[in-house]
Design goal:
Elements: H1 2-21, E1 34-41, E2 49-51, E3 56-62, E4 70-77, H2 88-91, E5 92-94, E6 98-99, E7 102-105, E8 114-120, E9 125-127, E10 131-139, E11 144-153, E12 158-165, E13 175-183, H3 192-195, E14 196-202, E15 205-211, E16 217-219, E17 222-225, E18 232-234, E19 240-243, E20 254-259, E21 263-267, E22 288-290, H4 298-301, E23 304-311, E24 321-325, E25 340-342, E26 347-355, E27 357-366, E28 372-373, E29 387-394, E30 403-411
Parallel strand pairs: 2-11, 21-23
Antiparallel strand pairs: 1-3, 3-8, 4-6, 4-10, 5-9, 7-8, 10-11, 12-13, 13-17, 13-18, 14-15, 14-29, 16-17, 19-27, 20-21, 22-27, 23-26, 24-27, 25-26, 27-28, 29-30
């Protein structure tokens, strides 16, 4: 009887353990002293989507400026961002958990920092298979500092895609719909609905990604997806922006500059654009670019400044909190980016310590149930320019991991009715 109970307890433990390791791996945000995380492909996209064998780059700053040791780990994931069953030797050539050896201290800046740079593939490792990956940065005590997703693909499946206005009358002016086809002649699929999975992403933001769509039609080697609401995104609005590359000159959206312990940039105030008419102006879809006119190497010569934001209170009872959002904070929200309301001037305010450069940003809201309301302040306009990616995953019957076999790209500048 005792052996039987022990066996049952062991089975329960294994079941709980498997459930835990099967959880979706989310990106961890860094402590406040690690800033300006730039993770991109050689094409300078704001998110590393790379063909197998192509390089991608990670950099970040440590405001402790003490040349601390940091290490990186690579985790291969399934389509749904749960860890795959592959051993590291099955998806890596070489070894991870290596120290980042390329770092330099800032030069001629009021805020001191150490800048770290990492390129993959490198002399220590390269990647053997396609799919979803997560890179983890840990300190010398093996404590996780932050993590980021990246994607490696094989070009085996062609994807044709168009951005269209939503077909529902109530949302045709506020949402954009993706219609696309996947061509599978190089995949030899026996059961496409079981072996093919897709994910849709708008402006490299995983917060609004769409998964678990199945093909509606199968035309031989062509899988057709013509959903309406299931494959539609809020269109949003063009991002707001500011440029601090010239640390002493107030221009564009910067109202004034002050020098205290460090430079401070005060932006002109904003207001809700949800009820205004759409106005086009170019943006970089939420991204940021580090730059400075005070040196030739922005990695170590761009300084940090306090950037002050202000917003007229939106007239909306659904809003509980307001945050700043963009690629500069990985589209997340936390205490640092939360705005506070000043009754004396009737404005929401926030101040962020940011490295010199050109930034896109927008205001997002959270309701009383802690649900994101991404565009309730910016507004939704179907003519907004957005970049979309269609990610095609393939798991052949009997395989233990999801390959990423195709990438489709569409832009709403060519939106169709």
């Amino acid at each position: 009887m005792l052996k039987k109970r022990t066996f049952i307890v062991l089975l329960m433990f294994l079941a709980i353990y498997q459930a835990l390791i099967a959880q979706e791996l989310l990106e961890k945000e860094p402590p406040q002293y690690l800033r300006t995380i730039i993770f991109k492909a050689a094409s300078d996209d704001q998110f590393p989507i790379v063909r197998l064998g192509e390089p991608f780059f990670l950099s970040f700053d440590d405001l402790k400026a003490d040349e601390s040791d940091y290490y990186y780990r690579i985790i291969h994931c399934n389509y749904d961002w749960t860890p795959s069953k592959l051993l590291k030797s099955e998806y890596l050539n070489g070894n991870d958990n290596q120290r980042i050896r390329d770092y330099n201290n800032s030069y001629n800046t009021l805020v001191q920092y150490s800048n770290y740079q990492l390129t993959i593939p490198n002399a220590d490792l390269n990647l053997k298979v396609s799919g979803n990956y997560i890179i983890e940065i840990v300190d010398s005590y093996d404590e996780l500092m932050f993590s980021r997703r990246f994607i490696v693909f094989e070009n085996l499946s062609k994807v044709s895609a168009q951005v269209k206005r939503n077909r529902d009358f109530e949302s045709m002016n506020t949402r954009q719909n993706l219609e696309f086809s996947i061509f599978t002649e190089n995949l030899n699929t026996a059961n496409p609905k079981k072996e093919i999975k897709i994910a849709l992403m708008q402006n490299y933001d995983w917060n609004t990604s769409i998964r678990d769509l199945f093909p509606q039609y199968n035309k031989g080697n062509e899988l057709v997806f013509r959903y309406s609401n299931q494959a539609s995104f809020e269109a949003g609005n063009e991002y707001l922006n500011f440029d601090t590359k010239d640390i002493r000159a107030a221009q564009g959206t910067i109202a004034k500059i002050e020098l205290a312990e460090i430079y401070e940039h005060w932006l002109y105030g904003n207001r809700s654009r949800a009820q205004l008419s759409y106005t086009y102006f170019p943006d970089i879809n939420g991204d940021f670019r580090i730059n400075t006119t005070q040196g030739t190497n922005p990695n170590i010569e761009a300084d940090y400044t306090w950037v002050h934001f202000s917003l007229e209170p939106p007239i909306n009872n659904d809003i509980d909190q307001i945050y700043l959002s963009g690629k500069f904070n990985n589209y997340s929200w936390n205490e640092e980016t939360k705005m506070t309301f000043d009754k004396d001037i009737n404005r929401y305010q926030a101040s962020l310590l940011l490295k010199q450069g050109f930034y896109n940003y927008k205001y997002i809201a959270v309701d009383k149930k802690n649900q994101r309301l991404d565009n309730i302040i910016s507004g939704n306009f179907h003519v907004t320019e957005n970049q979309y990616h269609i990610l095609v995953y393939y798991r052949k019957f009997g395989s233990i991991y999801d390959r990423l076999v195709g990438i489709g790209i569409a832009n709403s500048q060519q939106i169709e009715n």
